[in-house]
Give the backbone structure.
Amino acid sequence: MNKIALVTGATSGIGKATATMLAKNNYHLIITGRRKERLAELALSLQKEFNVQTLELNFDVRNREEVQNSIAQIPENWKNIDILVNNAGLASGLSLIHEADIDDWEKMIDTNVKGLLYISRQIMPLMVNRKKGHIINISSIAGKETYLKGNVYCATKHSVEALTKAMRIDLLPFGVKVTSISPGMVETEFSEVRFHGDKQKAAEVYKGLTPLFAQDIADAIEFAITRPNHVNINDILIMPTAQANSSHTHRV
Ligand code: NDP
Ligand code: 8X3
């Protein structure tokens, strides 16, 4: 029988690559995101290419009611969720802390911290009941270090790190695995979103170096989920070869 995985933010980047990797590994997929057409497109391609079933949930993770209603509507035969990938997230803006737009702060805190909590609060009890499950939280190098103008984005990812550790403790008696994946620069729509749609500014982030690609992160997740039952991968920090940490890159 196929296992079931739920990936948030599957319409783009790391989430899309992860959903595809999971389908390749014969998981039936619950995919979520705000962009409905993209969800439908992905669902169709996963069904066709990998012969798996899909369930599309279209909601904004910042909206507690939408999250609760969508998850509550999951049919019974989809509720045995083996893997939850908390991936939906964003950076909004890159500004000095005393100059930043507070709306950007709200967006990041509501999505990266509260959104992750809203989803997890709905799915964790299902895993606890089954005494089984694996939660993958997508953190960041920004969860381990802070960098100039990264302030609140870094704070949200430090929070993801704290929540990951907290989940691991609270869920310990129930056999639920919890893994944190922390990438450096990955070329996705991330920078375009961070710079509010400015494609040129986004392209500059990756200029003169080879960044990570979404598939590299899906590969790391694949490693974490394919370990034997008695092994939990706590943390994977994965960087481009051309990036030493959040402040040092080598460009040619
Ligand atoms: P993308 O912008 O390509 O993808 C982000 C995904 O998150 C989209 O599918 C988007 O879906 C979803 N999302 C964002 N906001 C919401 C929301 N309010 N409600 C529902 N879904 C939402 O970026 P990445 O793939 O790079 O980002 C994925 C994760 O990886 C994020 O948590 C990011 O912080 C983290 N990360 C990224 C790095 C990078 O360099 N790219 C490095 C380290 C971590 P939609 O817009 O359709 O709702
Ligand atoms: C994204 C990586 O370095 O832009 O989480 O914060 S970074």
